[in-house]
């Protein structure tokens, strides 16, 4: 029963992430684009939190890798504040994809 609930959670997380990243790249209006950047940034940090908190305390290298993946999204937000929207989208998308891969497979 518990594994079924976990499977539903992981599939829904993947679907929500996929929709948000797609909307991030499709968005044309400025305000909607800003909202999607912030939403994808928050999703990225939620994935980082899940990755770090799901690991045991002695897996320090894996936790550091998860924090570095979160750092990629911080670099993206730095580009967002410098008005470099394409770099922002690339870094945040990269952070989300790497976070999902780490959460699902490692």
Task: Explain how this protein is built.
The structure is a single chain. The protein contains 4 helices and no strands. The chain is mainly α and 106 residues long. Helix 1 (2-26) runs antiparallel to helix 4, helix 2 packs antiparallel against helix 3 (60-81) and helix 3 packs antiparallel against helix 4 (85-105).
Please report the total strand number as a whole number.
0
**End-to-end gap:** 23 Å
Major sheet: size, sense and barrel closure? none
Instruction: Report the principal-axis shape.
Output: flat
Instruction: State the helix count.
Output: 4
Q: What is the residue-mean pLDDT, rounded to a whole number?
A: 93
**How much helicity do the residues have?**
over 70%
Radius of gyration: 14 Å
User: What low-confidence regions span 5 or more consecutive residues with pLDDT below 50?
Assistant: none
Order of helices and strands: HHHH
Strand content: under 5%
Write a brief structural summary:
The chain has helices spanning about 1-25, 30-55, 60-80, 85-105.
Secondary-structure blueprint of this entry?
Layout: H1 2-26, H2 30-53, H3 60-81, H4 85-105
Feature tags:
single chain; 106 residues; mainly alpha; 4 helices
């Amino acid at each position: 029963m518990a594994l079924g609930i976990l499977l539903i959670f992981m599939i829904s997380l993947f679907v929500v992430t996929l929709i948000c990243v797609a909307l991030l790249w499709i968005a044309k209006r400025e305000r909607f684009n800003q909202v999607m950047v912030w939403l994808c940034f928050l999703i990225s940090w939620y994935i980082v939190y899940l990755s770090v908190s799901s690991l045991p305390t002695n897996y320090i290298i894996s936790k550091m890798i998860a924090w570095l993946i979160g750092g990629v999204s911080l670099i993206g937000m730095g580009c967002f504040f410098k008005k470099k929207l394409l770099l922002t989208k690339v870094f945040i998308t990269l952070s989300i994809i790497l976070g999902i891969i780490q959460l699902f497979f490692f």
